[in-house]
Every structure is written in C-alpha cells, then in structure tokens.
C-alpha cells in the first residue's frame, strides 16, 4: 500500500519533487473540476451524484500515480501492456 505524503483532499497545486508533472496536473485539473457543493453532491456531474464521484476518486488515484512515475521508459516493450 502506498501512502501519500500529502492530504488527498487538499494536495499541493504544484507537483511535489519527483512527481510526474503532466500526470499530476491532469489529475489536479480533474480534482478541481469535481468538488462537492453544499449538499455533498458533485458540482460537475449530473444532479444528485454523491461526492466523491468517480472522477474525483480517479483524480486521487492519478495524484498517487504521478508520485510513482519517476520516468517512463523511452519505448514500451511491444509485448507488454502500458501500466496505466
């Protein structure tokens, strides 16, 4: 199990040292777009979708993934799936 060195509900805006910057920024953009409203529903998803919605949970996973991706290989082996 991987423990984040930050609060997943309030991650830093800039990627931490060693995090993959593109993956971090994409996950952060999703997280910002899918916030709870005053009724604990997502402001972006359909009406009455409880927060955390699927995109906000995916964004949290993306932030953790950004910490694990130090540097992608120059070329993925053709017989292996990309791990994301």
Task: Briefly note the structural class of the backbone.
Answer: mainly alpha
User: How many strand elements?
Assistant: 0
Low-confidence stretches: none
Helix and strand run: HH
Largest sheet: none
SS strand fraction: under 5%
Radius of gyration: 15 Å
Mean pLDDT: 81
End-to-end separation: 17 Å
- Global outline: elongated
Put simply, the count of helices is 2
Q: Helix coverage percent of residues?
A: 25-40%
Would you mind describing this structure in some detail?
There is one protein chain. By secondary structure, this protein is mostly helical. Helices cover 33% and strands 0% of the residues. The chain has helices at residues 21-33, 54-68. α1 packs antiparallel against α2 (54-68). The longest helix is centred in the C-terminal third of the chain and has 15 residues, at 54-68. The radius of gyration is 15 Å and the shape is elongated. The relative contact order is 0.20.
Short account of what is shown:
The protein is mostly helical and 84 residues long.
SSE layout:
Layout (H helix, E strand, L loop, with lengths): L20 H13 L20 H15 L16
Characteristics:
84 residues, mainly alpha, 33% helix, elongated
């Amino acid at each position: 199990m991987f423990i984040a060195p930050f609060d997943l509900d309030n991650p830093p805006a800039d990627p931490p040292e060693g995090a993959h910057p593109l993956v971090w920024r994409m996950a952060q953009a999703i997280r910002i777009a899918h916030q709870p409203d005053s009724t604990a529903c997502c402001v972006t998803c359909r009406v009455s979708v409880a927060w955390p919605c699927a995109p906000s949970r995916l964004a949290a996973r993306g932030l953790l993934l950004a910490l694990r991706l130090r540097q992608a290989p120059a070329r993925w082996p053709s017989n292996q799936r990309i791990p994301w």
